[in-house]
Amino acid sequence: MAAQLLSTSVHDTVPGQYVRPESQRPRLGEVVAGARIPVVDLACPDRAALVSAVGGACRSHGFFQVLNHGIDAGLIAAVMAVAREFFRLPPEEKAKLYSDDPARKIRLSTSFNVRKETVHNWRDYLRLHCHPLDQFVPDWPSNPPDFKETMSTYCKEVRALGFRLYEAISESLGLEAGYMGNTMGEQEQHMAVNFYPPCPSPELTYGLPAHTDPNALTILLMDEEVAGLQVLNGGKWVAVNPQPGALVVNIGDQLQALSNGEYRSVWHRAVVNSDRERVSVASFLCPCSDVELGPARKLVTEETPAVYRNYTYDEYYKKFWSRNLDQEHCLELFRT
Ligand code: OGA
Ligand code: NI
Questions:
Q1: Does 96 fall in a domain?
Q2: Domain Fe2OG dioxygenase: where (predicted)?
C-alpha cells in the first residue's frame, strides 16, 4: 500500500514494525570513522598501475571510489536534485507508482521487500529498469518534468563507466579486457533512487540492513553532505565518506563468483540519522537472465578448484528476492 511510504509523512517516533531486536541494531558508536577507502584515479596514464589499484581494492575491500570518472559534475548535481524533487511530490502522485512486486520494472516502493521481511527499513526507493533506455523511459515518471531527460543521460554515462571498469577488473584478474563485458551479454541496468527520511531514533533501525548486491557491479552516487553508507571491512563496520566528486563502486555477487571468490562482494548497509534526509542513486549492472554464470574458466585450476557451480542469473535473482536481506550471503547457496 502506498500509505506505507515514509516520504509522505513526518515521523515523531519510530513505529514498532521498524524497530530491530536489540541484538540486530546498528550500534552506531562502534562504527569506524575516517578509515581510508581505496581510491582509483581513472585518469591515471599508467594502465598497469590503474589495473593494479583496481585489483588490490577488489581483493581487500570489494569496493573503491573512482575519481576522474568522466561524468560531468553538473549532471551529477542535476541527478541529485531531480531525485530529491521526486520524493517531494504529493502523496497522490507517488501512489500511482507504488508497488511491492519485485518483478515490476518501474516501481516506487519502501523498505526492501515488504512482502517477505519481518522488520521494515527506513527507506523509500524508486526502482527503474534502464536498458535499453527507449524501451523503459516512456514509462518512467514524467514528474518532475526533467526527470526522464536527466536520468536517462546519467544512465548512459554510468553504463559506459561500468564497462570501462569491467575492462580494468577483467585485466586485474589476468583475463582479457573484454571478458566481463562479453560473458555477461547485453546486460540489464537497473537504478535505485534511494530516499532515507530523517529518523527520530537511528539507533533502532536501518535504511538498508547489511546485504551484498546480487548483481555484477554497482556504481553509487551519494549525498556529499549526509553520510550513511557503511561497509564491513576486517570484521568492523566502516563509514564511507567519499571524496568530493567521487563515485563509489562495489563488486556484486556475480563478480565474486566470476573471480572464483578472489574478489569480494562486500557486505554493506545504510544507516539513517535524525536531522537530515539522505538521497543516493545506485546503478546496477546485471548480467542477462539466461547467461550461464560462474567462475571464469581460466581461474579454475587444480590448486584453485571452482568454488561456485554454474547457474543462470535468472535462477540467482529469483533466489535473492525470495529471501530476506539479512540472511547469509546468497552466493553460499551456489557453492560447489
Ligand atoms: C543499495 C545500497 C546504499 C546507500 O541500494 O543497494 O546499498 O548508501 N545503497 O544508499
Ligand atoms: Ni547495496
A1: yes
A2: 187-287
**Quick one: three-class SS letters along 163-203?**
HHHHHHHHHHCCCCCCHHHHHCCCCEEEEEEEEECCCCCHH
Q: Which amino acid is at 39?
A: V
Query: What pLDDT was estimated at residue 318?
Result: 87
Q: Within 6 Å (CB) of ligand 1, which residues are found?
A: 192, 194, 208, 213, 222, 228-229, 268, 270, 280, 282
Q: What kind and span of H or E run contains 256?
A: helix 253-258
Q: Which strands form 188-196's sheet, in the order they lie side by side?
A: 39-41, 63-67, 247-251, 217-222, 278-286, 188-196, 124-129, 106-110
Its domain, for residue 55, covers 2-290
Q: Tally the domains of the chain.
A: 1
CATH number for 165? 2.60.120.330
The ligand 1 atom at the shortest distance from the C-alpha of residue 280 is 10
**Does residue 305 lie in a domain region?**
no
| 134 lies in some domain | yes
Chain CA centroid to CA 330, Å: 15
pLDDT tens digits, residue range 128-175?
Answer: 999 999 999 999 999 999 999 999 999 999 999 999 999 999 999 999
Task: List, in order, residues 6 or more apart from 180 with CB less than 8 Å away.
Answer: 166, 167, 169, 170, 216, 255, 258
Pairing type for strands 39-41 and 63-67 reads parallel
